[in-house]
Amino acid sequence: MKKDIIPYSKPSIDNSDIKSVVSVLKSGMLTQGKNVPKFEKLVSKFVNAKYAIAVNSATSALHLSCLSLNLKKNDIVWTSNNTFVSTANSALLCGAKVDLLEIDLNTNNICLEKLKKKLASTKKNKLPKILILVHIAGMPCDLKEVYKLSRIYKFNIIEDASHALGSKYFKDPIGNCKFSKITIFSFHPVKNITTGEGGMAVTNSKILFNKIKALRTHGILYNNNSIKKKIGKLPGFYQQKYLGLNYRMSDISAILGISQLKKLRLFIKKRNKIAKYYSKNLKNLPLIIPKFHKEYLSAFHLYIIKVNCKNAKKIRDEIFYKFLKNNFKINIHYIPVHSHPYFQKLGFCNKIFKISELYYNTAISIPIFPNLSLLNQKKIIKIIKSSFVTKN
Ligand SMILES: Cc1ncc(COP(=O)(O)O)c(C=O)c1O
């Protein structure tokens, strides 16, 4: 009999999700219906932000966020070297330049001390217009500290919260945009909730909201009463104001998002329970394991372990292959951005990101998702422990 493959993450889809999607399919209104605005309203309420714009991926949300902040040629964006390439690509797609920030091995997020030093030693005309913060694995970055720097050095903050829907920074949900201009989320199937493919940008700025909303649909303004009145056109009249794209989310996706959002708190609880179980059982091994922050809640989108001893890479590779042999399809988050051929061509080959390299050579994301069975959690722990048993 063929054995089941256990991935590092998996969507939790139940009958209520299936029923809701079927109801939209039966309605005939597959896109531009009532479910997208409804989903937007629910997410903005959940994260406590004024406005939300649903799109077809987090990549689209990042691209539109950069465009809405007028990012252009010769502007500079800084972001973490430990992220999915689309974070950095969103800036490149606007014609801007990207610089990458070294990470902190305690949090796997950007290193605040290094950020401070880099800002202080950068000429004024080379400072970033935007800093995209990435809350890796759902662990929030220190938003207040970065916000203080943004006031001094005059840059905008976008939060890439692809992993962090359901996370909390102190008592506030990630996405409330107290310390940033825009926060974006991903609803890819491996993420905390899914819409198949999908993403969302949230903001407290009406100007940015209107701009992102227009850019999502070709840069067109619909239902703009001032236009209708001024030109005396009929309802349905539209005008293209910006050069935009079609990044819309369908109603099929939105209804799935609405159904999934109802279970988000439960999903985060289950992820945290698994994380606690892992931490309890892995704490005495030569590993760096995720910390539970006293003041923040991580959504635990990922549980990243790092081997921390002599021959760390060799042992990490052994663990990796053991997982594959036992039908666990694990992963590493992420291959450092600077090391991809495209970024090497941009000139990153000469930069040395020692910490990112160390991270990449020692890290593994072990499976974590709401329906991961206790039996599989035990198997996962056993595989890791067996790699540290001294061989005679
Ligand atoms: C940190 C981060 N940013 C952006 C993205 C892009 O998300 P999407 O697949 O929804 O475009 C991902 C997805 O893996 C991600 O993990």
Structural account:
With 392 residues, the chain is α/β, with parallel strands linked by helices. It has two domains: 255 residues, Type I PLP-dependent aspartate aminotransferase-like (Major domain) (Aspartate Aminotransferase, domain 2); 123 residues, Aspartate Aminotransferase, domain 1 (Alpha-Beta Complex). It has a seven-stranded mixed sheet, with helices on both faces. Strands 13-14-16 form a three-stranded antiparallel sheet. A two-stranded parallel sheet has the order 1-15. α4 links the parallel β3 and β4. α1 packs antiparallel against α9 and α3 runs parallel beside α4. The longest helix is centred in the last third of the chain and has 19 residues. The two termini are 35 Å apart. 45% of the residues are buried. Bound molecules: pyridoxal-5'-phosphate (PLP).
Topology diagram in text:
Blueprint: E1 6-7, H1 15-27, H2 35-47, E2 51-55, H3 58-68, E3 76-80, H4 85-92, E4 97-101, H5 112-120, E5 130-134, H6 143-153, E6 156-160, E7 168-169, E8 172-173, E9 182-186, E10 199-203, H7 206-216, E11 220-221, H8 225-231, E12 239-240, H9 251-261, H10 264-282, E13 287-288, E14 303-307, H11 312-325, E15 328-329, H12 341-345, H13 354-362, E16 363-366, H14 374-386
Helix pairs in contact: 1-9, 2-9, 3-4, 3-7, 10-14
Bound molecules: pyridoxal-5'-phosphate.
Residues 57-59, 83-84, 86-87, 134, 160, 162-163, 186, 188, 199 line the site of pyridoxal-5'-phosphate.
Number of domains: 2
Shape: globular
Q: Topology as H/E string?
A: EHHEHEHEHEHEEEEEHEHEHHEEHEHHEH
Average pLDDT for all residues:
95
Number of helix segments? 14
How much of the sequence lies in strands comes to 5-15%
Q: How is the biggest beta sheet arranged?
A: 7 strands, mixed
Q: Termini distance?
A: 35 Å
Number of strands: 16
CATH architecture of the largest domain: 3-Layer(aba) Sandwich
Task: List unreliable stretches of 5+ residues.
Answer: none
Give the helix proportion (percent range): 25-40%
> Could you tell me the radius of gyration in angstroms?
22 Å
The small molecules bound here are: pyridoxal-5'-phosphate
- Report strand order across the widest sheet: 2-10-9-6-5-3-4
CATH superfamily of the largest domain: Type I PLP-dependent aspartate aminotransferase-like (Major domain)
What is the CATH topology of the largest domain? Aspartate Aminotransferase, domain 2
- The CATH first-level class of the largest domain comes to Alpha Beta
Structural class comes to alpha/beta
